[in-house]
Specification:
Elements (H helix, E strand, L loop, with lengths): L3 H9 L9 H19 L3 H17 L27
């Protein structure tokens, strides 16, 4: 389970608030995971645990799934505040 210490923090990286950056973020995360799986070759148990966690997060639409944006989830109220743009 040593390899999970490199995979689980990926699930904690927040999705950007700006919708224009969602595609770039999902591409970066996808390429990171692909390169990690090809280079480090994690054990089968670690890969299955990570994929199960990723599936549960994306299936529940908690808003932190980097693969796509759930249609039912809303942005936080602070995302519409123009005073915080550029901070």
């Amino acid at each position: 389970m040593y390899c999970l210490q490199w995979l689980l923090p990926v699930l904690l990286i927040p999705k950007p608030l700006n919708p224009a950056l969602w595609f770039s973020h999902s591409m970066f995360m996808g390429f990171y995971l692909l390169s990690f799986l090809l280079e480090r070759k994690p054990c089968t148990i670690c890969a299955l645990v990570f994929l199960a966690a990723l599936f549960l997060i994306c299936y529940s639409c908690w808003g932190n799934c980097f693969l796509y944006h759930c249609t039912g989830s809303h942005l936080p109220e602070s995302a519409h505040d123009p005073s915080i743009v550029g901070t």
